[in-house]
Each structure stands twice: as structure tokens, then as C-alpha cells.
Amino acid sequence: RTNFANYGKGASNYDKTSDLFGDGIFTADGDKWRQHRKIASYDFSARALRDFSGGVFNRDAAKLAHIVSGNAAAKQPMDFQDLLMKATMDSIFTIAVGVDLDTLSGSEEGSRFAAALDDASEFTLLRFVNAFWKVSRFLNVGAEAALRRRIEVVDEFMYKRIRARAEEISDGDIGKAHDTVSM
């Protein structure tokens, strides 16, 4: 909690990840990181996470169990790894952002966002092994062109949620802070 400078991410990491993660807690260093951490600490305290996340994980586990038992009863094949990934994404996103992606139930918008985020994360990771990623970004070709398109999907989805939340707050509906927002 006090040795922030010992755990810096550095300019190189920022350069590679900021297109996707912006200037947030995942990319920032120093005072900016300390500010983000302080803000996040209110929502992500052990008690707040325990109180809220238990219900979210139980809800999504019940959805997953229902889907698996339905497919098993109907003797339908299923991609269990995909179902686990969707359940995890739904749960974590609800806890972190307050929005239920509902990819387990087949939400088209949530699934589109989740796929774009997954791809964008992969393309961002490739920057750590591709010495020429900046050239590809400049020319807008290959994985960098694909990354730009995926980030547009991610940004569109997130800014829509931010605008909706800002409207709730301006309308005086502050009590929904940790209610899940369905799409």
C-alpha cells in the first residue's frame, strides 16, 4: 500500500496497453495510479466484494447449472469451456462494472462486447512479442487494424453504460450504484 514506486508498470507497458485500457488503474503509475487505487478501494473492499459477489456468483452458477442440465437431459452436446468462460465473464463484469453481460443467456450485445474484449486483449498481448507492432498500428494493418476495430466495439459498449449511469445519477437515482443493469 505504500511502496507504489517499487511496482511501476513503466512507459513500455503503458505504450503497449493504453489503447485498450486508457489511463486507468491497469496502465497508470505513480500519483495517477494511487488516485485510481484510492477511488477503487471503496467499491472493492473485502467486505463490499464478499457481500455483493456471493450473490452474483450464485446467480450465474445457477444459470450455468440450468443450461448444463438442460443440455444433458436433451442429450445435446455443449462446449463446456465456452459456458464456463461466459459464466466467468458475466460474473466478473457484473462485479467490476455493475452490468450483467448475460452472455450465458445469449445476449447479442453482451456477447459482441465480450468477444471484442477477448480479441482486443489478445491483440494487445501480441504487442509484447511483436517488435514491429507500432509500424502495423501506423499503417493500420493486420492485428493492429483488428485491434482498432475491437476497441471501437468495447468503447461504444462502455460509453453507452457510462452515459446511462450519468443519467441515473443526474435524475437522482443514486441507489442503483450496485444494482446490476441488464441490457
Describe this structure in words.
This protein is an all-alpha fold and 183 residues long. The chain has a domain at 107-182. 69% of the residues lie in helices and 0% in strands. It has 7 helices and no strands. The protein has helices spanning 10-21, 30-43, 46-73, 80-97, 108-126, 133-139, 142-170. The longest helix is centred in the C-terminal third of the chain and has 29 residues, at 142-170. This is Cytochrome P450. Keywords: Iron, Metal-binding, Oxidoreductase. InterPro entries: Cyt_P450, Cyt_P450_sf.
Percentage of residues assigned to helices: 55-70%
Helix-and-strand structural type: mainly alpha
Low-confidence stretches: none
String of helices and strands: HHHHHHH
What is the CA-CA span between the terminal residues? 37 Å
Number of helices: 7
Proportion of strand residues: under 5%
Q: What number is the mean pLDDT?
A: 88
Total beta strand runs: 0
Largest sheet, strands/sense/barrel: none
What is the general shape? Answer: globular
Compute the CA-based radius of gyration: 19 Å
InterPro entries: Cyt_P450, Cyt_P450_sf
Family: Belongs to the cytochrome P450 family.
Keywords: Iron, Metal-binding, Oxidoreductase
Protein name: Cytochrome P450
